[in-house]
Design brief:
Number of strands: 11
Strand content: over 45%
Radius of gyration: 14 Å
Number of helices: 0
Shape: globular
Structural class: mainly beta
Helix content: under 10%
Length: about 130
């Protein structure tokens, strides 16, 4: 069964850190780019970061650049999002999604995703 499962969310104080994980199963992970998205209450979903299947390309939104780092471990079928210097405006449900590309592709986009996880809640508050 094809699945993307996010974990690692929680409550953290401003300035703190969290590491989100996206664990994939049921498909050939190394052929997929993975994106992280978030949706805050009352706002539209936005792309946060993505990483290509080859790990050669990454992308970050302006709002998280320099604070978040995306990485992947194809041996573990997992993508990570390290989030540092968290701000209250980072509060949202974070989703990961998979985009079918090719093996060792540099493609990294935030549209046309094929599979989605159910999300993990990140709350940044004192």
């Amino acid at each position: 069964q094809l699945q993307l499962v996010e974990s690692g969310g929680g409550l953290v104080q401003p300035g703190g850190s969290l590491r989100l994980s996206c664990a994939a199963s049921g498909f050939t992970f190394s052929y997929y780019a993975i994106g992280w998205f978030r949706q805050a209450p009352g706002k539209e979903r936005e792309g946060v970061s993505c990483i290509s299947s080859s790990s050669t390309s990454t992308k970050y939104s302006d709002s998280v650049k320099g604070r978040f780092t995306i990485s992947r471990d194809n041996a573990k079928n997992t993508v990570y999002l390290q989030m540092n210097s968290l701000k209250p405006e980072d509060t949202a449900i974070y989703y990961c999604a998979a985009d079918r590309t090719d093996y060792y592709s540099s493609r990294c986009v935030w549209d046309g995703m094929d599979y989605w996880g159910k999300g993990t809640l990140v709350t940044v508050s004192s």
